[in-house]
Amino acid sequence: MSTPPFSTKSSPLSPAGTDIFWKAPMTPEARTIWYKILVGKVPLRHFLRQIGRSTSSLCHLCTTSFKDTLHFQVGCPTKNDVWTSVLGYFFPHLHFSIDCLYTIMTTLTWPSTIWNPSHLLVVIGTTLRCIWIGHWQSSIHNIPFQRQHLVKRAIRETLHILTPLPLDD
């Protein structure tokens, strides 16, 4: 397995990446969630605590204290297991570190080893959406965050988007 080359330093959005982001065939929900990340409007637990919507600033999945979007999106070990499984399914010869995945999600730039960026963005967007749903169901409704269920759902939904429908005869 090779590790995609990346700097973890934040940079502005890639114009080419932005164009592909808006054209990639992901669901509107996935694109909206990802857009919230791009513009810095993610409802982190410490913010929810400040406005009285949460009593704790701990991650409810791994009980680590956090105040950044990196942990919320990909750094939480529970969520990272989902990312690792889904990305491993679609890109078995690549390893995406937490920093690499975070860089892709926040700058819309990706490793040069990715030959189809639109495909990558669909995988990430769909997985992000599934994790987001699982996170909030767990946070708000106390529905367990089921990693394997979310992995299967993300793979199934991604394949549905990426697999062309047969043409009618």
Automatic annotation (TrEMBL):
Question: Which positions fall inside the Reverse transcriptase zinc-binding domain?
Answer: 19-83
In terms of InterPro entries, this protein maps to: RVT-Znf (IPR026960)
State the source organism's domain of life: Eukaryota
Could you tell me what this protein is called?
Answer: Reverse transcriptase zinc-binding domain-containing protein
Native source organism of the sequence: Absidia repens
